[in-house]
Each structure stands twice: as C-alpha cells, then as structure tokens.
Amino acid sequence: MSRRTAPTEEAARSAPSPHTKATGRLSRSLGSSSPKFRLAQRRSLTGWTFLIPASLVILCLNFWPMIQAFILSMKTGRGTRLNFAEPLWSNYARLFDDEIFKLTLQTTFIYLIVQVPIMLILALILANLLNDRNLRFKGLWRTAIFLPSAVGLVSYALVFRTMFANDGLVNDILLGFGFIDGPVNWLGQTETARMVIIVGLLWRWTGYNMIFYLAGLQNIDYSTIEAAKIDGANAFQTFWYVTMPQLKPIILLTAIMSTNGTLQLFDESFNLTAGGPANTSMTISHYLYMVSFRNSPNFGYAAAISYVILIIVAVLAAFQIRVGDKRD
Amino acid sequence: MDTFRKSVSVAAVMALSLALAACGGGDDGASGDDAASGDGAASNGDNTLTVWAWDPAFNIYALEEAEKVYQQDHPDFALEIVETPWDDLQTKLTTLAQSQQLDQLPDIFLMQNNAFQKNVINYPDLVSDYSASGIDFGEFPESVVAYSTVDGKNYGLPFDNGTAITALRTDVLTEAGYTVDDFTDITWSEYITIGEDVLAKTGQPLLTGQAGSSDLIMMMLQSAGASLFDDEGNPTITDNEALLAAIDTYQQLVTTGVLVEVNSWDEYINSIVNSSVAGTINGVWIVGSIQSATDQSGLWDITNLPKLDGVDGATNYSANGGSSWAISSGANAELAADFLGATFAGSTEFYDTILPASGALANWTPAGESDVYAEPQAFFGGDAIFAKVVDFSTQVPSNNTGAYYYEGRDAVSVAITNIINGADPAAALAEAQATVEFAMQ
C-alpha cells in the first residue's frame, strides 16, 4: 500500500512519522508538519526578536547598575578607598542612627501622604469637568492646565522661590488684599516651607495626571453613563458607581507613578528651599546628593540610602497593585 | 523564497539591534559626560592648557589676561577655557575621581578654598602638588595658603581674595551722625549699640544675611583664630568659647533688628542693591555685587570687622571663601606651574590690568604694593579700598577646614536656626557635634 496522498492533518499530529521525530523541531518548522504549528512557532520567534534588543538595553543600563549599586552599598570608606564592610549590612544599620536621614524620611512621607491624594483627586475632578461634551474652549483649558508640567523643573522652582520670598509676589498680594498683617516668612518656617513645595508640586503635576484621566475617560463607553442617567443617578452617583470602576487601571497607574516620583523628589528640595530651614524640607534624594557630592564623599552609604528608596517604592507599588488591580 | 527573505531580514535586524544594544550597554562604565568628551584630556598640544573655571566676569576674564601676559614670552602658548559653575565642577571632580577616569580632567581647575581639604584628602590622585614649581608661597598670606596645604605640601595657588570687609553706606551713617571711622577697630557690642541707634534714627538695619547660613558666624569664628575642627581633624563644636560668643552675638544682632535675615542669595543681593540695608559684612568679592547698583556710586566705604568681646585671640580680620588654582594629576604639570607662576604668582602687570576692570583682588602680596592698588575708588567715596584690603589680608588668622568642613558648617547652620527659634545654645551645639561625629564615621 503506497501513500499517494499526504496524510491528513489529524493523522499527522497524532502520529508523527519517525522521520520528523528524529530530525527534531527545526525540520518540523520548515514545513514537514501542520501549518498551524508552524505559524505559532514563527509568531513566537518574531516576538522574541522584537523583545530581545529592548530587554538587553534595559538589562545593561538599568539592572546591571542596580546590581552594582547594591554591591556598593555593602562597602564603606571614603573616596575610592572602598572596602567591604564588616558586617555587610553596616551601612543599612547606620541609617537607623542617622538623624538627618530620619528627618528626610519623615519629610518625604509627609509630601507623599499630603500631596499625592490631593493631586490625584484634583486631577480626577478636572478631567471630569473637562470631559463635558458641551464645554467650550476645551483645548484651551486642557493646554493651560497641562502646560505647567512642560516647564523646566529648575526654572519653576526658582520662580516659586522668588514668588514666596519675604518681599515676593505672594506676600504683596496677600498684604494688598488685607488677608495678613505682615509678610509671612514662607521659606523660613518648616510648615510653610513644606507647604510651598507641596503647592509647587500640585501646580506642576495635576495637569499631567489629568491628561491620563482624560484619556481614560474617553475610553469609557458613553452608553454606560447614559444607562446610569436613565436609571436616575445624579452626577456624583454616576461618577462614583459607573465612571470610577472603569477608570481603576488608570488611577492605579497614576498612583504608582506619583508615588514613585514623590519619593524620589529632588529638584524642588534643592532649588526651591535648599533643604529648608535647618534641613526640615529636605528629601531623601537631596540628602543622598549631599552625602555624595557636597560632603566628604561616602558612596557606599549613598548607595544604601538609594536602596532604601527603592525598597520603599517597591513595597508601596506592590501594595497599590494588590489593592487596586483586581483582574478577573 | 518569501519565507527565506523574511527570515534573512529578521536575522539582519536582530543582529543590528544586538550590536546597538551591546554598544549601548558597554558604555555604563564611563562617567565623563558630554562636556568632558570635548574638553578633557590634558594638553592636546605641547603648548596648550585646558582650564575649568566659573564666572566669566571675574575668573575667566583674569585667565584671558593671564594668557596674554604669558604669550609675551611664549608666543605659541594657548589656553582653552571651559566655563563650569562651581557646583558642577565639584560634581565632575567627584565623579571623575571616583570612577578613576582621571584622563578626562583638565590641566588646571579652580577650586573653592573650603573644598580643598575634602577633595585632596579623599582623592589624593586628583591633583599634583606645587613642590617642583619653584613658586614662593611665602608671598601669599599664610591663612590663605593654609587652605590648600595638606601634609605640608601645597596643592593650590591662591587667587580670589576672600578677605572679609564691613561695607557701609556713608550717607545713611551721616544721617545718623556716624562715620566709617566709628566702625573701625571696634568690638561687636559697640557695633550692635551703634546699629540700634542707626536703626532708630534711619529705619535701616546695618546687616543682611541668609537665614540659616553660617557664613557670618564662620567669619566671626575665624577672626578669633578658632575653627570647627582642631589640628587633628576632630570636631571642636562643643566647648568652643569663640563659637558660643559668635552665636550669642548673632542672636543679639537678630533680636535687635540690626541684622535682617532673608531666605535666599537673590534676596540678599537685592536687599543691598535696593537700599533696604545700610551695609553688609562679607568677603571682599561682594564689592562686585555692590557696584552693580550704579545709582549708589560714591555712597559706600569699607572698613575692617568688629572683634568678638571677651574672647582670647580676637582680631578685627577674617575671611570668607576665596578660591585657588589646582593642577590636576596627569596634566602637563611643568607648563601649568610655569604659566601660573609667571602670571598669578609673578606678574604685577597682570594684577594691575585685572583690578580696575573686574575688581579682582590679589592674594599675592607684591601685587598689592603697586600704584593701581593705591588708586582711589570713586564708588567708595574716593577711598583706596583695594590697598586697605590687601593690608587686612595679611592679618587674617588661619582656620582649620579639614575633609569634613561642609558637614561641620551644615551642622552649625542647623544649630543656629534652632537657637534663633529658642533652643538652648549648648544643647544645640552638642547636637551639631554629634551630627558631625556621626558623619565622620
């Protein structure tokens, strides 16, 4: 009995000929087995081809320095005379005794807890307002609110510093309107200095997050909102029960990004308040810079500080994903 | 055939991407950034030197004039100047030294006197010393040379004079019935008394300063020959009589209103230029900023500092800042030392040129003896201030900086802010000492 017709697909799949088994997968992919299998193989190969270059770049430029930084954080010494510490975690243990570090940790957390929720809620409200179909000059409002995030970090910090000076614009306006009796020393007191930084951050990043929410809102099917209106929900109920759940992934994204950005805050602390009165508005990254470049360089310790930031960001991000990302 | 072409093109793209990624990944060792690539590397010609310095109106102008002076005897000499602000320069030095990319350093760079000990002690292979240069360091004031001397060797050639002066508005003083002579060779308690009187009569405070800045206290400390660190480098912040006296004086200045605290450098300069204050105490380099207020010409004069009451060794002279030239290791050290020695440490003609145009005051004593220095300055009411300052500079006491100077200054700044807000001085200073000792571990 000769095989004049090729075996059917099913027969070929369930009982591959000894020939293909011996020569392996490659010959199979070159056409001796079913078309479906070959396509899947090729798709997978194409996918890997596109992934590998980018992954290699990330590996070399992100993960390799991170590993080196971790090794550096286990060394002590000044300048280039670095040796492994005894015990290895002594830099981390030293952090617990560092009063300035503990102060900056506290300050950074204050910025995080106060600024991020206010900013995200504000951005959400603004996005909702600007998503209204009947609003005029939408482009103008959106551009105006987004523009602050396009301004250079150093320039805006310096302008804010001038504005909140003792004889600056803010004091002039408040005095002119009679809200205060004498000029407020914004940058010279701890609470107000921190407040100025928070105001600066809100001004700058609300627009940025608002754009994310706008994009998310555009993706919400209008029929769901219509359905809620038909069911008799008012504006707030529509927002809370219909819009918000559909925005959850975007909210999660912006929350993680904001947390990450605020924990690594540097420019405002450096340029706006220069660490503020007696180091009280200094952030962890600013302190890191001082330890590395302004004071007597102690790079092992600086690497340990940076790893603490990394750990905190990672923990918070994991927590936020756990709470926010409920995929079915 | 289609499949073959596709696989070949995919393979080619993959190979190219891998090569790109490998090239990109291999660079993570180098730390010199875009600026260093163009101007690094010591002497690209036999007679060319690269210099990193800041301030085009002052240091860079001086370098250009020095180049001209040196070219009179060495016509094929050239100087490549790269403007680099001090903060950037310090970051670059630390980065290059830490990553051992020392060939990216220039031949010469300018360094703040306060930072010399820290950089030389931590990175000894960053700079070359001047021992083979033949420059006579006795021609510079001892206190200034001391900043850049480590283990008895000289690593810096002093340039920018940081001698402290009291600058005063003579018109405001006259209104209150005083002259500049009433401020010469006095004590701080006398200064505060006069200051209160001037404030009452004219409504203008005598001093302005940045809140939380330890500059004024450091100047007072140095005027008494005291420091934050002893000769071995141990912190002497607690039980420091001169420091306690300085802080007490500072407190009195603030509470009486004779000193007005502002929050940033711009505000500080503004208060001088806008006539909100009747004077200031700072290094002589503040004259450049004062002179930017052209409408106040003829209304200023200078004198020496008040001395601390009740402290042994108190003087009327001090310094704040100043910078010196360092020669990097691996540079064309001979040529660099020869150039610097012939101009900054050897040419009165050079100093005569730069003084009138930029107010660049020499630390080099022979320069101070020239006629140009004795010329009356119209802005300062016809007083020959430069000759005065050179005279002051010879009487400034030295102070110990050490590798942890910035930590010390920071800790004292924090202590000052807390003391102004009501903390007990002894306790605040003890905390400052603990902070510095922790940082020194």
Quote the beta fraction of chain B: 5-15%
Q: Superfamily at the CATH H level of the largest domain in chain A?
A: MetI-like
Oligomer: heterodimer
Structural class of chain B: alpha/beta
The greatest interface between two protein chains, and residues involved on each side, is: A-B, 41 and 46 residues
What is the alpha-carbon Rg of chain A in Å? Answer: 29 Å
Helix tally of chain B equals: 18
The helix content of chain A is over 70%
The whole-number mean of residue pLDDT values of chain B reads: 86
* Strand arrangement across the biggest beta sheet of chain A: 1-2
The span between the termini of chain B is 70 Å
Number of domains of chain B: 2
CATH fold-level assignment of the largest domain in chain A: MetI-like fold
Kindly provide the name of the CATH class of the largest domain in chain B: Alpha Beta
Q: H/E element string of chain A?
A: HHHEEHHHHHHHHHHH
CATH homologous superfamily label of the largest domain in chain B: Periplasmic binding protein-like II
The residue ranges of chain B in which pLDDT falls below 50 over 5 or more consecutive positions are 25-44
User: Percentage of helical residues of chain B?
Assistant: 40-55%
